[in-house]
Amino acid sequence: xxxxxxxxxxxxxxxxxxxxxxxxxxxxxxxxxxxxxxxxxxxxxxxxxxxxxxxxxxxxxxxxxxxxxxxxxxxxxxxxxxxxxxxxxxxxxxxxxxxxxxxxxxxxxxxxxxxxxxxxxxxxxxxxxxxxxxxxxxxxxxxxxxxxxxxxxxxxxxxxxxxxxxxxxxxxxxxxxxxxxxxxxxxxxxxxxxxxxxxxxxxxxxxxxxxxxxxxxxxxxxxxx
Length: 225
Ligand code: C5P
Fold this sequence. Notes:
alpha/beta
């Protein structure tokens, strides 16, 4: 990639993992560290982009030169991503968004009652932010999703790419060797145009650069927004 190929572009990156609150002190969460999303934000700045980073529950310092918007839950992430995406050239959804949230939020801490069994936690589906971006996208935008698959990685990846109407889907193979919290990652990047890019195991920065290579190539082919 040539150095400043994202100059003049505004990109939105989501990072981390959402927390779905049960009561003022408890939530349902996941193990996403935010490392991949932060690597995407840093590398985009280095390539000249203006970057909005929508960050959910990440314990990492703010990357220099990035506008960081902090969110907690999937519903908050949807608000922040959709509002930033409206004027953006590209959106990369690297965050682990909870598929479900508790139906009820208790305003006061849930107590254990003597002898009584706890109430079951009932869940409701969260909005699929990536699918929504695929629906409302302008033709000149580039939309990128991430997917962690354990089996049938390619078939499941292709199906997900089509279902969510993204331009690119970064598919991580997960298994014993989870990508979560590790500094390195390996992936296959599938394109809606049928392309396939294999990124060997390496630093999350290297995967981020491969993502921006593919995004920049697609932006160059499209009329400016
Ligand atoms: O369907 P799945 O959760 O595997 O899709 C993963 C991709 O979709 C990621 O890019 C993630 O950020 C995004 N996603 C989303 N909203 C959800 C669930 C996932 O944007 N509710």
